[in-house]
Amino acid sequence: MERVTDVPDSPAPSADPTQANDYDGFAEAYAADNESNLLNAYYERPAMVSLAGDVADRRILDAGCGAGPLSAALRDRGAVVTGVDASAGMLALARRRLGDDADLHVADLGDPLPFADGAFDDVVASLVLHYLQDWGPTLAEMRRVLRPGGRLIASVQHPFVDYAIQDPRPDYSATTSYTGEFTFNGRSVPLRFWRRPLHAMTDAFTAAGFRLAVISEPQPDPAARGLFPDGFQSLSTKIGFLFFVVEAPPPAADSGSGSDD
Question: What is the pTM of this model?
Fold first, then answer.
């Protein structure tokens, strides 16, 4: 759902985890903030589009599509996009953006996906995996719906940032959760995330049958320099999000004895 506008300076210990991640309750505020802020509009989203490359005529699943800004960007580049999100409120905004004929589905990424095996050329997962305690079932489903040779392109909160902002420091090697207060368009809301070490991320991709193609820590879009001069300089010199491109391997080449010629 292209979640997260920024990481807080420190987690908010008073935030109630049971009230966190209620995107239906603040969909409008989140979408308005996400549309043009530095981290989403001029850093994370351009990086995802760049990693996707030429997407003309590719069938893409936007897993956690939110209000649809990444879906729109990919569709504008010729992709055939399907979106899923757990929040009906966010999907209503996506339909408003993408049109009544947009292929959008309410679906929780912790559950089986409502698509056939090999239905997509790519899956994009924009700032959504860090909401999941267990990546295993979700990655297995993403692998299932990808054709052989397809790609999963994912962005997550950087595990080093999530480790550094917590006081006291958590066990880096463990998968731990924390809840922080975030402000979207003037509204403060609690969000809960699961922080895991880098090796746990790469291990999860491998266990799901993917092979790692790219790990990226990109720079923000240069167009943001004039719009956000102070923020641009800060973001250009610190750790931001972490990006992956992982591939579903193509079928192994036939190792038989060859033709009868």
Answer: 0.91
Domain extents in the chain: 17-247
The whole-angstrom distance between residue 120's C-alpha and the CA centroid of its chain comes to 17
Highest CATH level, class, for 17-247: alpha beta
Cis peptide leading into 159, omega within 30 of 0?
no
Torsion of CA 52, 39, 134, 205, to 10 degrees: 30
Question: H/E element holding 239?
Answer: none
The Cα–Cα gap between 3 and 90 comes to 11
From first to last of its 261 residues, what are the pLDDT tens digits of the chain?
Answer: 444 444 444 444 445 666 799 999 999 999 999 999 999 999 999 999 999 999 999 999 999 999 999 999 999 999 999 999 999 999 999 999 999 999 999 999 999 999 999 999 999 999 999 999 999 999 999 999 999 999 999 999 999 998 998 889 999 999 999 998 999 988 999 999 999 999 999 999 999 999 999 999 999 999 999 999 999 999 999 999 999 999 999 887 654 445 454
CB atoms < 10 A from the CB of 241, how many? 23
